[in-house]
Amino acid sequence: MSDALGQILDVLKGSAIAEDLGKDDSSRFWTMYKKVSKEHDDDFLRGANDDMAIILTVAGLFSSASSSFIVGMQPNPGDTTNALLAQLIQITVNGPNSVPDISNLSSSTELSSSMIWVQSLAYASLAFSVLAAFGAILTKQW
Description:
Distance between the termini: 38 Å
Helix content: over 70%
């Protein structure tokens, strides 16, 4: 082990890369170590920053696509509004004493269990993609 360190120090002595800040071998070694570790750390941080930018972009695109599917799965509130307007017109025509039957109103809350599961999964995927984007933003700012 010390033989390998001795060879490294011999190489660094003759190298133009190592700065002559000190006269002994130890200071040259640590100067070189500092340079190499700084280059390695900078490369690592640059790569991590690029990865977070990609994750942020993909999470944003997935969130927008997921949101459009969620909006498309929502029931049409116009059906209930049209039925209520028809009831109001019937009350106006028949007089205020007539009591309309509201049991035939279309309700937008009558969804099948499979549709509820699909919407729950869509909302969960949207929540996770927003959390991924939030994590990427925090990582990029750190």
